[in-house]
Amino acid sequence: MLLRRTPGKGGRRTPRVRRTGRTVERRRDQPRLAGGGGDPVGIPAEPRAHRARAAGASGELVSGLLDARSVRELATRLDLRPTKQRGQNFVIDANTVRRIVKAAELSADDIALEIGPGLGSLTLGLLDVARHVTVVEIEDSLAAQLPRTVAERMPERADRLDVVGADALRVTDLPGPAPTTVVANLPYNVSVPVLLHLLATFGSLQRGLVMVQLEVADRLVAAPGSKIYGVPSVKLAWYCEARRVGTVPPSVFWPVPNVDSGLVRMIRREPPATTATREQVFQVIDLAFAQRRKMLRAALSGLCGGSAAASQVLERAGVDPQARGESLLVQDFARIAQTLSLPRE
To answer: Is 345 annotated as a binding residue?
Structure first.
């Protein structure tokens, strides 16, 4: 499903919807709306200190960003019940949105890509800075509501938005200009696969900032030799230099997660120089960490036809056969994959 704005009567823009035929199932075990007012259960009020900083002298929000009350109203309107299956945790604090946008270091020329915009908290913040924003949302009701939310709260930016109704793991092309940066609160349960898919699919992405579970953030930026260094660390290093630039508490989300979140900033770089393909390098990475305490000569024995042959390949690549995957840089894995593709001696 693709939603884009088209001129309506009187020059106003109204959403046009193209549906893929996909239906969205709602889980019956999700909490019902509470009380006579119909407010969704568990949406906390925005912290008082946050409200004070976000509001002007009149008490109204300085910008069109969403706060806890706005999120509550939208959720009630949509009869929304976030699901753990899709890792849905919506930001309810405008100051957190401002912080994320600032950390992303966007310019007025950037084309931002957002995954899982939900009710639009971060989308509105991105539209306030970037030249254009493309969002990918799997939930039909959320994808349909987002253009309306932008039109209500930031009408002067409405023509800067494209909404794609699809699974981010299956997206291979996007409407509008090619994205230059990805800024997203990624769904907890698919954050790493989605991030790697986007980097592999959209070579135009030069920078990014993603919010993920804190544990995942630490794994993404881990260095060789660390106990948490693994497949996500090495594969992300193929595409980017990455570092953690902040922590976000559970209290700014609805539903409130059980863990902190981390902000990871990325800058695209050239992959290691090698004649091997990315797929060949990633195969070696996967095997090296399948049983992380195995020496490389054992971990790669199946691929090489035995541990003796694996030792020969590793030595030709300049890697100690008794080393373990957790001690290697992405460049080392690239050399191993390249050596595997060469004729055997």
So the answer is: no
